[in-house]
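Researcher: Quick one. two chains, 560 residues in total.
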Amino acid sequence: MYLKIDHVDKTFQRGSQTTEVLRGITLDVAKGEYVSIIGHSGCGKSTLLNIVAGLTGSTNGGVILEGRQVDEPGPDRAVVFQNHSLLPWLTVYDNVRLAVDKVFSKTKSRAERHAWTLHNLDLVQMVHAKDKRPAEISGGMKQRVGIARALAMEPKVLLLDEPFGALDALTRAHLQDSVMALHQKLGNTVMMITHDVDEAVLLSDRIVMMTNGPAAKIGEILEVPLARPRKRLELVSDAAYTKCRAAVLKFLYERHRYVEAA
Amino acid sequence: MNMPIRNTENVVALTQASAEVLPMPQVPAKSLLSRALPMMSEIAARIVPPLIVLAIILVVWQLATNSPKASLPSPLKIWQDSKDLIVDPFFVAGPQDIGLGLRILTSLERVAYGFGLAAIAGVLLGAIVGQSTWAMRGLDPIFQVLRTVPPLAWLPLSLAAFRDANPSAIFVIFITAIWPVIINTAVGIRNIPQDYRNVALVLKLNPIEYFYKIMVPSAAPYIFTGLRIGIGLSWLAIVAAEMLTGGVGIGFFIWDAWNSSRLSDIVVALIYIGLVGFVLDRLVAGVSTIVTRGTAQS
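Model:
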């Protein structure tokens, strides 16, 4: 298996209080696969992503990527954060270049790194704004640059932490199409956290549905049998799409309803 | 060579155009005056009020100290007594008879050394305290106690240690200016958003890269606040330190003038000190706005 999440438990300890967030998460992801993780807020899906990224340690179990155990963060598991987290004092170009310089310091020449930076900005159609600072571009554009920065690291797995959560519906749809096209073109392995059912069905090969916390588990895994490339408009009336959508909605709102203050 | 030909073309074109009179839209070309006026009134609105207040102060001062029995000099008397100091800041008439500008420069040199060292050491120490919980727990209480020690209280120890006036004065500046730099830098570093830390972790920046590429730019607004307070305190401390250590600086000049009852000279020196302090503050503030252009807005 390319990426293996093996019996991961996570318990947070705050003073004398222990909270069990994740229990026995096991998931295999194939190379080039697009997997979404969906669940109500607070179910620990972001914690799971952070464990895969290496930003948080697991209490038990571990993550294995291409036969090597993950124990610290690294550019082979690039993260696109929900709030873009571009460095505001650097230009768009320099934000991507920082990553390129760090990852390819030994393997690429100066000129190659420059070209690679521009190439990745071009992938997300952001070359025109390369000399702007993050404060001068829109939220959708910032997220594009965040994606370019992650792609530029040539990661083995691309981790998307609710990447479109902070965007308006139109920009979100636009960016989803871009991500789909990039996945088609580059064949990245992607793990995406989301709480948007349509987004999950549209983008994913498999949807991992998590039960409510505390001690959240994987409730169900749904294969999305839709051929790629997928077209947003054509899918609206597609039977398989509607079925998948209904299955996820049923899971989230019927069997694992979000109980406030549970 | 081409000019004459082009000219004739223009002439032809013009005569053609003048045959049929086209109603050209009136270009709203603002005259230079109409554009300059709002700007000038803007400037005047900022300059005139302080000038009026200054004039009022001078008049009141003059009236209050006009009598021959007055203990303090009036503005007119100051002008008569210390005209040489006011008019030419850079004269040299003897080893101890030099312009105030030159004295200020000597003092500024001490401040530059002391403050420069304080800035470097302060940012580094602040980075350590801000980054490490244990360093903070260990060092912060000590800093909090030491920073309340008045600058001049360090002077005797400093003189004993360095056995020379100049390094002692520089040390006093250093020890005065370093606390706000340390404390503000530490706060700035503690406030680095987790997002930026995560970016650094994913990119595997080493500690030195992290310091230059994330810490310093992210904490820059805080660091500059500390530097600005620090330079103000340095300038406060140098005058007091020089009064005691002697030498060429502006502080010693004031002490010397007091000992020889040249009150007018003291007033002039005070104005010099105030103006230079103001300029120093503006200078650090100016550098700060340039450097933190990207950081302040997020």
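The CA atoms of residues 68 and 74 of chain B lie 10 Å apart.
Researcher: Thanks, that's what I needed.
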